[in-house]
Amino acid sequence: MTGSVIATPRLHLAPLTVADVSDAYVGWLNDPAINQYLETRLSPQDHASCAAFVAATAADPQSHLFKIVRQDSKAHIGNIKIGPVNAHHGAGALSLLIGDKASHGQGYATEAIAAVTDWAFGTLGLHRVEAGCYDANLGSLRAFLKAGYVVEGFFRQARVDAAGRRVGMFWMARLNDA
Length: 178
Ligand SMILES: CC(C)(COP(=O)(O)OP(=O)(O)OC[C@H]1O[C@@H](n2cnc3c(N)ncnc32)[C@H](O)[C@@H]1OP(=O)(O)O)[C@@H](O)C(=O)NCCC(=O)NCCS
What we know:
The protein has five helices and eight strands; from the N terminus they run ββαααβββαβαββ. The chain has one domain: Aminopeptidase. The chain is 27% helix and 34% strand. A hairpin with a 5-residue loop joins strand 7 and strand 8. By secondary structure, it is of the alpha+beta class. It has an eight-stranded mixed sheet with strand order 1-2-3-4-5-6-8-7, sandwiched between helices. It binds coenzyme A. Coenzyme A (COA) binds at residues 34, 37-38, 78, 96-98, 104-110, 133, 137-140, 142-143, 146.
């Protein structure tokens, strides 16, 4: 749940609402190239399931879900979420997708991760934001590292990938210790 809007040099991050659940959004979640490293692939995704997820997350005080919008084209290119947040420990998880393939490889994930992490430190008062990625998801790993995250661990054979193989997972975090 958040009412915050975050502006970065090239992006506009605003609360994701049920009205943002477009055919394109549902399509991202059903695209094997996009969902291969996402847990969402494990259950069928349609307009109703996406809308239910957005509504439930909006009602959850421990989660903050933003749409990622390019300033140049005004296109909604993906989503980014902080949550769940553990207020006692000042820690939260971050996850994202850039679903619009035409927007890949242009630094948008890096820019969104850095901005939402700074927001979590400054506005939510978190001390630590953490994230995991499958070992083959080198784009995600690189984006988090470029956004100031450090690899803290490698979980061996922690997940089963889309091809049914056991794969490892990197665990990364950034601390508000500047
Ligand atoms: C992974 C993902 C977030 C990367 O988004 P992006 O906007 O393309 O990432 P960036 O442009 O910020 O790239 C960051 C770095 O990773 C590199 N990179 C991007 N995709 C890559 C890939 N498939 N393989 C290797 N490196 C890659 C970029 O070149 C860049 O490094 P550089 O600046 O040294 O050249 C995006 O592809 C995505 O959302 N994929 C589907 C969902 C997903 O995997 N989400 C993350 C779950 S943990």
